[in-house]
Amino acid sequence: MDQGGEDRVAASLAAARRTLRAGVEKSRALGHALARAGPRLEEIQVALPALEAAVRPIRAPHGELSAAGPHIDRAVGPAAAVLKVFDAVHGLERPLLAPGGGDLPGYLAVLAQLEDARRFLADNCGLAAQWLADIVEYLGDRDLADPRFLADLGVTLEGLRAPSGDLDGGLLAAALDILEAEFRRLLADHSAPLAMLNPGAAAAAPARVPAAAVKKLSLILDRLVANGRQDRCVATYIDARGSVVSASLGALGLDYLRDPAQDAQALGPALEMWGRHLEFVVRRLLESERQLCAKVFGQHKDVSSACFAEVASQAGVLDFLRFGRAVADAKKDPIKLQRLLEVFDSLNKLRLDFNRLFGGKACAEIQSQTRDLVKLLIDGAVEIFEELIVQVELQRHMPPPSDAGVPRLVTFVVEYCNRLLGDQYRPVLGQVLTIHRSWRKEVFNDRMLVDAVLNIVKALEANFDVWSKAYDNAIMAYLFMMNTHWHFFRHLKATKLGEILGDVWLREHEQYKEYYLSMFIRESWGALAPLLNREGLILFSKGRATARDLVKQRLKTFNSSFDEMYCRQSSWVIPDKDLREKTCNLVVQTIVPTYRSYLQNYGPLVDQEGNGGRYVRFTVDGMEKMLGALYMPRPRRSASIQIRHSSDKITSAMTGLHRSASAVK
Predict the structure, then answer these.
(1) What single string gives the DSSP state of each residue in 417-461?
(2) 287: buried, middle or exposed (CB in 10 Å: 19+, 13-18, 0-12)?
(3) How high is the pLDDT of residue 514?
(4) Contact, 415 vs 488, CB < 8 A?
(5) Is this structure's pTM higher than 0.85?
(6) Cα(321)–Cα(643) distance, rounded to whole angstroms?
(7) Alpha-carbon span 216 to 224, nearest angstrom
(8) Please, is 313 exposed, middle or buried when counting C-beta atoms within 10 Å of its C-beta (0-12, 13-18, 19+)?
């Protein structure tokens, strides 16, 4: 074989080798591929039943598939609408949760959309799920879908049939929290306390929450109440406005309400503050709170009443009523009658305000305590008033003043009855007596009140004669009667009581004063002047010694009588300045001119012996000054009338005063 043939054979062998090698490689690769395909074939074998079920509808009869189409469309339509609303709810998240929103109406409008969406979902989500469940059941009954797929879908739809309240993912709760925070902020921003005006200051309208803020509060409240947050709103409102009320009261200084005095006289200043403070609390503070409460709560009237009642309880209205009760429980005396009338008058002036503010069921305790207090005031006032004449008569047999002055009982009763018939107390006392009589089905009029007061005065007048007869000294009795009748005339003239008694009655007391004044002068100082008579005094040389002895004797007798009279009457008083000056002038006119003349005529007889001072003890000017200084009133304890109770114990009618040995001293 030639060289060329060998080369061709070698080339063929090489090509065959390469071909064999390539075949081996392919066989090897195919073996590896077959090895890898085994598990996948197993997976395909496992998946074949599912694939068969999935394509089963395709293999289902065309008629059954066509019949299922309309049913599926009717079920999917409502479900699609529900899904669309869910998408809309998600779109409301940004405007509802965005910070710093100042447009409250716009915010509430978006919130209303959310509420509408929630209501739609609550009403339709379950229905749409039910329709879808019916379709699943329809497909399962007709073997038009994979049973396992239908089972899983059925479980999901079962949960949608009764949807939970959290259909919006908590969006509504978050929005309501934001509204609550705004509600608290608005209340806090307008929580300045209300100040009480000073007496006489120009009246000003109560400081109120601005109308714009009230409108916002009301709008927010409506939405919160509509979403079940009423209790939280009420608690927030009561806490905020209660703090305002407490701060307003704190500036008044109401500590006196907690520890009132036990006697009527000491209650006077506190009672005056009580009346002004109660009027401020009721007519300004609580009235403004009632109006605010009504505007904020609007149509929720029951809630408004309950809320206002809680705010009012923090205004201490019950504390004011308890103070009035303390006045009613104070020791019984005539001054207490005035205090009871003052409390009744304050409450009566506020009667319409009380009815308007506290007329609801929520304020039942305030109503009850007010009624009880008014009854105590009326019963107590009538009891004291009806006892006054009895107490005056009981004083009749008490000893009269030891200084012949005006009895404290007279001073007190005259002033007291004048006050009762004055403009401050007369209409109130008349109203109290009218109400009390009406409870007993009796009639009362103003004339009956006047007659009752006149009977008290006449009972006091009847005491005068009894007291005057109690004096051992008739001259002192004259001075006592002069003082007492003049006090009656002077302190009743040009007064309400004096007008009722009449001019004739008053003139009688003036005439009595003049009569007893003349009797007093005549029987006392008038008896001294005759002691300086000139009988037996003959001024000539032979009778000078005899005349001197007579002058000495008469001066000695006069001095002794004058000393005795002066010493006795130096402890007597004439309280009225004009009457005292008039009486002293009459005494001076009765004694001094006679004394001056006597000394001028006969004084030299005594002076000749050098011991005239033993007999001429007073100069004319000195005597005049002594007599002019008589009857000066000394500091006395305040007027007091004492009331004898059924227990037979004596209680001072003007509290805080010292008792004297005599009830009329």
Answers:
(1) HHHHTSTTTHHHHHHHHHHHHHHTT----HHHHHHHHHHHHHHHH
(2) middle
(3) 96
(4) no
(5) no
(6) 28
(7) 12
(8) middle
